[in-house]
Design a protein that fits this description.
alpha+beta, Phosphorylase Kinase, domain 1, Aminoglycoside 3'-phosphotransferase, Chain: A, domain 2, 2 domains, five-stranded antiparallel sheet, two-stranded antiparallel ribbon, Aminoglycoside phosphotransferase
């Protein structure tokens, strides 16, 4: 990345001033992310990866648009500065946003927190999710942010195509999961909201000294669709083993730790949105496992093709595709 060219472009588009120094974050597997330091402040640059990419993947333009649209809503987002869609500047499209100080919890078990703190952090996370699903699409200019129609059917078709395009070996559990979802999809109930697409605790920045979400990150998979898919993706994460790799809650004594059970979290979300309950949640949960398996398969393929942001992480994530496919089948079967 040519920092001189980048500096000239940013200075021409914004009131930010260079020279800029760039330090790549270890996270940001899908879209490489950099900390930019300059005399005018500290910022973050998020770009598309280089190399051949799947169609509609790594949509940094959509990330920029949705966060800019949410600036004056009840959803906490980072302040956006500028979007560049000219590959000639640094080789790929990118955007620049503020750098937000705060805490990111990569372990959802929150080992350094007290039970009361854990409960408050999880409640804040659920409040923000409900706020995302309560955004007025027309008022924010996001009415056309995603197509209308049956969200699960649309997403199942999209991610099946993405999975097949990046498939590297036969996986019977994944084939069975796709077929099972096609047969079990509930009827479209007409709900259409903004959905984040990858809502989990490590995609949130919390205030340094309070259980308050300062910003929701990583909007690459956001669209308009069914809100229960977001909630199911959050619950899905908790089914994984704890630790740096799984980053889940499986096997933990949630009551002792002050963490909500799946049922408690779903009930709290329903209360925040004023709804009675969620039917067919197992189907939404199975879909969440399926989609994550398809995403990880794409990461694995990019690693094998030499296009991954972090090849070692890509191989590690790719090894979990069979696990997600198996868990998806189990969820679908109740």
């Amino acid at each position: 990345m040519n920092l001189d060219t980048l500096t000239r472009w940013i200075e021409a588009q914004t009131d930010l001033r260079g020279p800029f120094e760039a330090e790549k974050f270890a996270s940001g597997q899908s879209n490489p992310t950099y900390k930019l330091t300059s005399p005018s402040g500290t910022y973050v640059l998020r770009r598309k990866p280089e190399g051949a990419l799947l169609k509609s993947a790594h949509a940094v333009d959509r990330e920029f648009r949705v966060q800019k649209a949410l600036a004056d809503t009840g959803v906490p987002v980072v302040r956006m500065h500028t979007l560049c869609e000219d590959d000639a500047v640094i080789g790929t499209a990118f955007y620049v946003m503020d750098h937000v100080e705060g805490r990111i919890f990569f372990d959802p078990g929150l080992p350094d927190a007290t039970p009361d703190e854990r409960g408050a952090i999880y409640d804040a996370m659920l409040q923000v999710l409900a706020a995302i699903h309560s955004v007025d699409l027309d008022q924010t200019g996001l009415g056309d942010y995603g197509p209308e129609g049956h969200y699960l059917a649309r997403q199942l078709g999209r991610w099946t195509k993405q999975y097949r395009a990046s498939e590297t070996e036969p996986l019977p559990d994944m084939d069975a999961l796709i077929a099972g979802l096609e047969a079990a999809l509930p009827e479209d109930d007409g709900q259409r909201t903004l959905v984040h697409g990858d809502y989990r605790i490590d995609n949130l920045i919390f205030a340094p000294d309070a259980p308050r979400v300062s910003a929701v990150l990583d909007w690459e998979l956001s669209t308009t669709g069914h809100p229960y898919a977001d909630l199911a993706a959050l619950v899905m994460q908790w089914q994984l083993p704890p630790g740096k790799v799984g980053r889940g809650l499986a096997g933990l004594d949630r009551a002792r730790l002050g963490l909500p059970t799946d049922a408690d979290a779903i009930a709290r979300y329903c209360a925040l949105r004023g709804i009675d309950g969620i039917a067919d949640f197992n189907v939404y949960l199975a879909f969440a496992f399926f989609r994550m398996a398809a995403i990880l398969q794409g990461v694995k393929k990019r690693g094998l093709d030499g296009n991954a942001s972090n090849p070692e992480q890509a191989a590690l994530y790719g090894s979990f595709v069979p696990v997600f496919a198996e868990k998806g089948r189990a969820a679908l079967n109740g």
